[in-house]
Amino acid sequence: MRWQLSGPWPCGGRTIPATTVITSGEAPGYQTLPIEDLPTPLPIDVTIALDTDAALAMCNWYPRSMWHRLLLGPGVDRATLRTKAAGGAVEWARWSTA
After folding, report:
1. Per residue, what are the HEC states of 34-61?
2. Neighbours of 84 (CB within 10 A)
3. Which of 40, 56, 66, 87 is most buried, most CB within 10 Å of its CB?
């Protein structure tokens, strides 16, 4: 899973800069942080889900009433997300795209 911050995120005693990629299941590197080192949920207004699994994780973190605020990158398979997250019951045209 991969997410990217579209803006800075004040997190504890530090600020994580915009464009930082947050990963799950990958080794940390330059400009990437493992999600295990961060509090969840990630902030909804500055986090772009870069893949379908990351978008599904965000659907699990936030109530359905907030899903229209999720930011989805071009790597997200919206048809799969629609099927797995909501059984097709969400108005997907309102979802943001990055």
Report:
1. EHHHCCCCCCCCCEEECCHHHHHHHHHH
2. 14
3. 56
Q: Where are the domains of the chain?
A: 2-97
Residue type, 24: S
Structure-token match 């464009």, residue found: 19
For residues 14 and 29, what is the distance between their CA atoms, to the nearest angstrom? 18
Q: How far apart are CA 58 and CA 53, in angstroms?
A: 9
Is the per-residue pLDDT at 90 higher than 90?
Answer: no
d(CA 92, CA 8): 27
Let me know how long the chain is: 98
Give the pair of three-digit tokens for residue 30. Answer: 């330059």
Placement of tokens 């800069």 in the chain: 17
